[in-house]
Write a structure and sequence with these properties.
- The complex is a heterotrimer of chains A (346), B (287) and C (330).
- With 346 residues, chain A is of the alpha/beta class.
- Chain A has a single domain, classed as 3-Layer(aba) Sandwich (Rossmann fold).
- Chain A has 12 helices and 12 strands.
- In chain A, strands 6-7-8-3-9-10-12-11 form an 8-stranded mixed sheet, with helices on both faces.
- In chain A, α4 (123-133) runs parallel beside α7 (173-185).
- Residues 1-8 and 25-36 of chain A have low confidence and may be disordered.
- Chain B contains 12 helices and 1 strand; from the N terminus they run ααααααααααααβ.
- The longest helix of chain B has 37 residues, at 175-211.
- The model of chain B is unreliable at 1-6 (pLDDT under 50).
- Chain B has one domain: MetI-like (MetI-like fold).
- Chain B has helices at 2-5, 9-31, 62-97, 101-115, 118-129, 133-160, 163-171, 175-211, 222-231, 234-237, 241-268, 270-280, and one strand at 283-286.
- With 330 residues, chain C is of the alpha/beta class.
- In chain C, a hairpin with a 7-residue loop joins β1 and β2.
- The chains are: A alpha/beta (346), B mainly alpha (287), C alpha/beta (330).
- At the A-C interface, α8, α9 and α11 of A face α6, α7, α8 and α9 of C.
- β1 (283-286) of chain B pairs parallel with β4 (70-78) of chain C.
Chain lengths: 346, 287, 330
């Protein structure tokens, strides 16, 4: 089931439909001894749309499948089942060669600003590189210079002379991330996948990058898929939030309403556990764990994956196959994957 | 690159020595005191002021021959190193960058070359093919490429996973571009450090081959000088200078290469430099 | 400065800590400049700052765990005993036994090839603190204390989730019954629920066992909720020290105020602010207040005169000319 994103000029930029992905366990001794290698499913029927000019945040803890989803969205991996639709075109089955021309229209911003820029290239070179790769660099040196200046200005790095000839190690983390963003925008993509773009930056610098993303998505009509584990960061810049747990989207809706009135027990637990800034709100609330904490190499139980930890759990939950159910209250489309959601909100 | 400016004293020493040898080798025709085959009065003449390294069994001046010999030895060494490094880098890059079959195949070939008993093989090849300078250079080069190959492969493999390389891939860069613009620049310093060590190794192998009688009989090299000395009873005649002079040159040159190589390794990998500092612990000044 | 309240003794007392690194031609780089902290038994101090402020260096310097390029000076007292003596004997004995350290990235703190229980028992037995049977019992106790299921003792670190690993690291650190626990960003790698659990647990254990805790983090709201006091660092110095019980009371050091304002909150209507500029480089520290270039209220004297950490309220100290001039108490 997909939630159609609000768009102004046609369909969504990116449409993920029922994506599933699994990783087979390594063969090793198990295979040698004839035992069947266990397959762990990392994604279960993930469906998500990203429209032009909107930021969709994909929130989840590590191991929830959000990074895998991002990789599938950019077709850096092939899903086991499901479809990846980009600009209305099904790109699920395309070969790397067929994908190459499309790569200009979908770009990734990486988490680590210290590793994502080539340390041996100056900023100007880094910015022009995407154009060089795709043979779009024409014109005189003055033209090129002009493009570099414009790119730097678009991400707030002015005066351009100050940054053009620097090497990455001469820039701060925030500045590097801006260069990375500018470089990705050189090819005028429609989709930007940002993988934890601010989590390695100092807190005092983060808002600058987030505000840049918000400005750019509006100006350029970009669709942005924003991956993060930090709920506060997500809600400060995203239009919609999708909460992931163990490879499934458990809640989806406009950012502020999901946070203000969460419907899935996991979302509620997440919101309650965040330390709030002012002391006007109480301390973080979290249930003590005992044996319920997830271990790494666990088996996949049937039923709702949150059943083991859920404060609202009932017997039927353990056999219920979770499905994202839509509801439309006051015109704001929400979706929750909890069989008790409706009775809880009454 | 200011780190390089603060080279290790050993590195500077090594570099100076290598540079000196190179200069002497190049300028030998000009600065050698006498002619290579110029005869003097005494067989196995003792070192004297006129002949600081004495005379050999054919009454030639040893110092002159050492200079000319350095020319030959270094040429063979350099040529062999060039071949080894070129071949090794190519194999290393190909193996490190591709996955699966190509990598496996190349690595197995590397392993086989490593495992082959090199000296007997070289003896057979040179004996059959003819011991000229160029043949020697080629054979030694084909012997020594595997170390470079492995080093480069390891470096390329780890670089492939670097974020900015993956980013270039996701931007749609072709493999050729990734290799030339992203990987090779980073790999080159490592290759240079490895080349210096390969040079040392090559010089040694040349001397060893010459000692076994496989050197080029028509030219003078450090190895052939030692071999000739042994053949012509320098030992029983007590003419130590005929062996010590070329032998010391070889030893000193190899030592210099090692110093240079280690210094450039530390310059490239700053973490090596501070490793010994961690072992020591901080200085604590109580109030 | 008056000693901390009540009957609780000062477990950890740091005076004038200074750390310099050998910068080669550039001269010594001062990473930590005259830092003084004290933590009472059973109390939690949050040491907060952004990258380059010197908080992690401070922590490591307290136990002398820096490289040979560092020169540490000052005084560190553990329950009254001087650690920085000429022969460093006291320091060596205190490390791991009197003062426990838990670093970031629990995968590298724990030995990956030993089971958890063994990592607790071995040091105890090796240092002759307990016999093997008593050590095993202690291991069981600690795992229960950290709310870890019993089977975790027989597991290897990589078999546990991030949250469990972190709690296991803390269990290992607590084995020799230390008086002080130092934690460097213990929850950065954890999701928010695991983070809340770990921090709750640390606080409970600290109170129960009267352990003084120093928690280094970049997250101010976290410290506000879990620690008793906070010390904010910038440019190698402590610029503010205040109890978290009085969190909402004025005044604030400008940096702390701006840092708080740049922290997003769940129900914010708009994006938080940023602090323009970047932290000063260690070799380019200004003569006066390190925050002068980015402060929104800097006076002329701020650039040339270093402000001292002066009291502006009960147990509240701020190093700022502006705040003092505005009428903080003397």
């Amino acid at each position: 089931m997909t939630m159609a994103a609000t768009t102004s000029d046609g369909g969504p930029v990116l449409s993920l439909e029922d994506l599933s992905m699994g990783f087979g366990a390594r063969r090793g001794l198990a295979g040698v001894l004839g035992r069947k290698p266990q397959e762990r499913r990392v994604l279960h029927d993930v469906s998500l749309d990203v429209g032009p000019g909107e930021i969709v945040a994909l929130v989840g803890e590590s191991g929830s499948g959000k990074t895998t989803t991002a990789q599938l969205a950019l077709r850096l991996m092939t899903p086991a089942s499901g479809r990846v639709v980009f600009e209305g075109r099904d790109i699920t089955g395309l070969t790397p060669r067929q994908l190459r021309p499309l790569r200009t229209r979908m770009q990734m911003i990486y988490q680590d600003p210290y590793e994502s820029l080539n340390p041996r290239h100056r900023v100007a070179e880094i910015l022009l590189e995407p154009l060089r790769i795709h043979g779009r660099l024409s014109g005189s040196a003055a033209d090129r210079d002009e493009r570099v200046t414009r790119a730097l200005a678009s991400v707030g790095l002015t005066p351009p002379e100050k940054y053009k000839d620097r090497y990455p190690h001469e820039l701060s983390g925030g500045q590097r991330q801006r260069v990375a963003i500018a470089s990705s925008l050189m090819l005028e993509p429609r989709l930007l996948v940002a993988d934890e773009p601010v989590s390695m930056l100092d807190v005092s610098v983060r808002a600058g990058i987030l505000s840049l993303l918000v400005t750019l998505k509006a100006e350029l009509g970009l669709g942005v898929l924003f991956i993060t584990h930090d709920l506060s960061t997500a809600v400060s810049c995203a239009d919609r939030i999708a909460v992931m747990y163990r490879g499934r989207i458990v809640e989806l809706g406009p950012a502020r309403s999901v946070i203000a009135a969460p419907r899935h027990p996991y979302t509620r637990d997440l919101v309650a556990a965040v330390p709030r800034r002012g002391s006007r709100s109480g301390p973080p609330v979290v249930a003590p764990e005992e044996d319920t904490e997830d271990q790494v190499a666990g088996e996949e139980p049937d039923g709702c994956p949150y059943a083991a930890r859920c404060p609202l759990v009932q017997e039927p939950c353990r056999t219920w196959t979770p499905e994202l159910e839509a509801s439309d209250d006051a015109g704001a489309p929400r979706a929750v994957a909890c069989r008790r959601a409706e009775e809880m909100t009454r | 690159m200011s780190r390089l400016a603060r080279l290790h004293r050993g590195g500077l020493l090594g570099g100076a020595i290598v540079a000196t040898f190179a200069a002497v080798a190049v300028l030998a025709p000009v600065i050698a005191p006498y002619g290579v085959d110029q005869s003097f009065s005494q067989i196995f003449g003792h070192p004297s002021l006129a002949h600081p390294f004495g005379l050999d069994d054919s009454t030639h001046d040893v110092l002159t021959r050492v200079m000319w010999g350095g020319r030959t030895s270094l040429s063979i060494g350099l040529a062999a190193t060039a071949i080894a490094v070129l071949l090794g880098t190519t194999v290393g890059v190909l193996a490190g960058y591709s996955r699966g079959l190509v990598d496996h195949a190349l690595m197995r070939i590397t392993d086989y070359v490593l495992v082959l008993p090199s000296i007997p093989l070289v003896i057979v090849v040179i004996a059959t093919w003819g011991p000229s300078v160029s043949h020697l250079a080629i054979v030694i080069g084909l012997l020594l490429w595997t170390t470079t190959a492995r080093l480069v492969r390891a470096q390329v493999k780890s670089m492939r996973e670097l974020v900015y390389v993956r980013r270039a891939v996701s931007l749609g860069a072709s493999d050729a571009r990734i290799v030339t613009r992203y990987i090779l620049p980073q790999v080159t310093p490592l290759v240079l450090a490895s080349a210096v060590l390969t040079l040392a190794h090559a010089i040694f192998v040349e001397a060893a081959l010459a000692f076994l009688g496989l050197g080029d009989p028509g030219s003078v090299s450090w190895g052939t000088m030692i071999e000739a000395a042994f053949q012509r009873t320098a030992v029983s005649a007590g003419a130590w200078w005929t062996i010590v002079a070329p032998g010391t040159c070889i030893a000193v040159f190899i030592l210099a290469c090692s110093l240079l190589s280690r210094a450039s390794e530390e310059a490239l990998n700053p973490r090596l430099r501070v490793a010994y500092l961690s072992a020591r612990g901080p200085r604590i000044v109580p109030r | 400065m008056t000693a901390v309240q009540t009957e609780r003794s000062t477990a950890l007392d740091v005076r004038g800590l200074r750390v310099e690194f050998d910068g080669g031609d550039a001269g010594p780089l001062v990473a930590v400049r005259d830092v003084s902290l004290d933590v009472g038994a059973g109390r939690l101090l949050g040491l907060v700052g952004e990258s380059g402020c010197g908080k992690s260096t401070t922590l490591l310097a307290m136990v002398g765990l820096l490289s040979g390029a560092a020169t540490i000076s000052g005084a560190v007292r553990l329950a009254g005993q001087e650690l920085f003596t000429a022969d460093q004997q006291a320091l060596r004995r205190a490390r791991g036994v009197g003062i426990a350290l838990v670093l970031q990235a629990s995968m590298s703190t724990l030995n990956p090839v030993r089971k958890i229980a063994a990592q607790i028992t071995e040091p105890l037995v090796y240092h002759g603190l307990l016999g093997p049977a008593a050590a095993r019992e202690r291991a069981r106790e600690l795992l229960a204390l950290m709310r870890l299921p019993a089977h975790v003792g027989e597991a290897f670190p990589h078999e546990l989730s991030g949250g469990m690993r972190q709690r296991a690291s803390i269990a290992v650190a607590l084995a020799p019954d230390p008086k002080v626990l130092l934690l460097d960003e213990p929850t950065t790698a954890l999701d928010v629920i695991a983070q809340a659990r770990v921090l709750e647990l640390i606080r409970t254990v600290a109170r129960e066992r009267e352990i003084a805790v120093v928690l280094v983090t970049h997250d101010l709201p976290l410290v506000a909720h879990y620690c008793d006091e906070v010390a904010v660092m910038y440019g190698g110095e402590v610029v503010e020290r205040r109890p978290t019980t009085r969190w909402d009371e004025e005044p604030w050091h400008p940096y702390t105020r701006m840092l708080l304002a740049s922290t997003p909150d769940l129900l914010d209507a708009e994006l938080p602010a940023t602090i323009p500029g970047t932290p000063p480089r260690l070799d380019q520290l200004p003569a006066g207040c390190p925050f002068v270039d980015r402060c929104d209220r800097a006076l002329t004297e701020c650039a040339t005169v270093r402000p001292a950490l002066d009291p502006v309220g009960p147990e509240h100290r701020v190093a700022c000319h502006v705040v003092r001039d505005d009428g903080g108490e003397r």
